[in-house]
Fold this protein.
Amino acid sequence: MKYTIRAKTEHRIKIQRSEFIGFLFPVQSMDEVQEILKEHQQTYADATHNCYAYILGYKGETSYYSDAGEPSGTAGKPILNVLLRNELSGVLAIVTRYYGGIKLGVKGLIDAYTQSTAETLEKARLCQYQELFSYEVQTEYPLLESLRHRFQGLKIKETDAEYSEQVVLKLSVPDSAREELEEILNSYTAQNRLSYSMEK
């Protein structure tokens, strides 16, 4: 069983005068990971290092880490190992370091990045990771706001919308919300007011 986090979590520690700021973000796609990384690196452009790791997919199929200038294997891999040990997916972890003037050495860096990530995770609220399904909904304009209102509370994420003669909504839907979503969609399909398709 995989787990993820409910919300962004942040935690600061100091080790040998260096400040380590751990961040955890719930993420669903590579686009989301890249967007968060870009914004984070702009916000913390004055940091010495912004090291990170992430895991995506229902079975953790996609993972990656970056040492971001720290010696190879001393930052990104320890961050990733914390995520793996805790059976997490759908998570991006970033540890931002402000160098304090004292070199930590290879073991010291590994321990510091591990500690920062682990302590940040201790503050996070975990939940079971659910497989996500992609839905494409094509509907008429007068129905749009009503649909969006009914989607609220179902943990459905609207990932894209295309506006032409009709509206095409692209949705990311957790497994737990599929049955209720399809009940909503089918009620309108019966009236010939929308059509939809689903894929994993």
